[in-house]
């Protein structure tokens, strides 16, 4: 099991249940109504290649999460007679079985709950489904959380990848595609050249460091055991189904609630964004045309600052933002991350030679995304109120605001309990000073 275990969840309990620790517990198994599921659009990529003869049973780790669920849907529905797809997911806070609910009952789709940090879980699923191909998406991926809980990122992203590689080596596979990130390159100064796949890795935050460390393990297994590995490094991905902890869906949901946007620092850092549908096409291209042993950047031409995202979303919502005074009504500057890279910049020439190109402009993709969240953002995961605060804290499927988590008692502070309520020493002192009793 991973270092932080999720609380036990009754699948019959509605999503977003508040518990006695003043937090929200999300239930990734909670299902939308049949009417809502019927209304929800089914998003895929657009590519369709000649199927590979040495790929039949494909394991997708993190398959109930954002990027992986797009790829799962694409493979299942585009290649119904060629590939069997097994979605393998721990069902952490940012996952939802609603993401692949449309596939339930299809003969070439199966879901298996399991943890990549459990050798037994991985061994079981590889044997049960006779897996010959692995797409490894599963990861702790939210940079903000990595500053406060870096152990969990190392455990999942490094050790989990190690477990998967070792079990794949023992089982025997034909192809292992490891999904990494452009953040492993580190900060790229303004005006500097785009970085190629051979550039030095200089990660600057715990998340990026864990992904770079995972890549070193991937490289070692390629060299030592000749495991058939491909590594993919993508720019930031956005689109429907992304858990609203990331900037674009979070800002959409805040505006939907007529709340201020919580902008880190001055909002000047930029990121390059690729729409999820284009990302799926890139992965499908790499799957069918990429070479074993290679690394591929998935690079976007759309480099957007965080502040520009505010302006673009305010424009879509028809809210005033042309003057600083108007902007202040809708944008609240919060503290920045302990370290925030100014920008990332990668060269996508290598992937372009395989035939991939970015099709969706940022403006088009953003409008599709906004429309989806307006319809489904409030119901897809359950109660996301605490997620929409500045720097929420997550453990398993349990979510607090930063302030609520800081107020939790430490192990040394836990005192008597009354009706399941934990009292801190400070609270007890205040109670006793007022003449009260526990």
Automatic annotation (TrEMBL):
Positions of region (Disordered): 1-22
Superkingdom, natural source: Eukaryota
A molecular-function term among this protein's GO annotations: dTDP-glucose 4,6-dehydratase activity
Domain NAD(P)-binding: 59-368
Keywords tagged on the record: Lyase, NAD
Cofactors named for this entry: NAD(+)
InterPro entries for the chain: dTDP_Gluc_deHydtase, NAD(P)-bd_dom, NAD(P)-bd_dom_sf
Pfam families xref list: GDP_Man_Dehyd
GO BP: nucleotide-sugar metabolic process
Protein name: NAD(P)-binding protein
Provenance organism: Sporormia fimetaria CBS 119925
């Amino acid at each position: 099991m991973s270092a932080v275990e999720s609380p036990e969840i009754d699948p019959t309990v509605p999503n977003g249940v508040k518990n006695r620790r003043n937090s929200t517990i999300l239930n990734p198994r909670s299902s939308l109504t049949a009417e809502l599921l019927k209304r929800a659009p089914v998003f895929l990529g657009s590519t369709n290649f000649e199927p590979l003869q040495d790929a039949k049973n494909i394991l997708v780790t993190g398959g109930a999460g954002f990027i992986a669920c797009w790829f799962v849907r694409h493979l299942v529905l585009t290649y119904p007679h060629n590939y069997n797809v097994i979605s393998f997911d721990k069902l952490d806070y940012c996952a939802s079985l609603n993401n692949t609910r449309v596939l339930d009952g299809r003969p070439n789709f199966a879901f298996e709950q399991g943890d990549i940090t459990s050798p037994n879980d991985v061994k079981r699923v590889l044997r049960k489904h006779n897996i010959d191909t692995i797409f490894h998406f599963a990861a702790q991926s939210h940079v903000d959380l990595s500053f406060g809980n870096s152990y969990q990122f190392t455990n999942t992203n490094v050790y989990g990848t190690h477990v998967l590689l070792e079990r794949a080596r023992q089982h025997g596979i034909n192809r292992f595609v490891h999904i990494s990130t452009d953040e492993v390159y580190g900060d790229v100064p303004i005006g500097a050249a785009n970085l190629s796949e051979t550039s030095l890795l200089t990660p600057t935050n715990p998340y990026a460091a864990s992904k770079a460390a995972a890549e070193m393990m991937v490289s070692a297994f390629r060299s030592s055991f000749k495991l058939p590995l491909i590594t993919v490094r993508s720019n930031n991905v956005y689109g429907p189904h992304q858990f609203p902890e990331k900037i674009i869906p979070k800002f959409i949901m805040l505006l939907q609630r007529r709340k201020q946007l919580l902008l880190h620092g001055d909002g000047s850092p930029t990121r390059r964004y690729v729409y999820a549908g284009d990302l799926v096409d890139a992965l499908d291209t790499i799957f069918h045309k990429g070479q074993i042993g290679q690394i591929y950047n998935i690079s976007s031409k759309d480099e957007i600052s965080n502040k520009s995202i505010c302006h673009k979303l305010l424009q879509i919502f028809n809210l005033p933002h042309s003057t600083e005074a108007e902007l202040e009504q809708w944008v609240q500057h919060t503290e920045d991350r302990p370290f925030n890279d100014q920008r990332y910049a990668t060269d996508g020439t290598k992937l372009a030679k395989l035939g991939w190109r970015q099709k969706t402009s940022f403006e088009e993709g953003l409008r599709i995304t906004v429309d989806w969240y307006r319809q489904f953002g409030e119901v897809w995961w359950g109660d996301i109120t605490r997620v929409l605060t500045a720097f929420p804290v997550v453990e398993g499927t349990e979510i607090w605001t930063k302030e609520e988590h800081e107020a939790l008692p430490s192990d040394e502070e836990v005192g008597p309990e009354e009706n399941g309520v934990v009292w801190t020493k400070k609270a007890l002192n205040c109670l006793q000073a007022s003449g009260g009793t526990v």
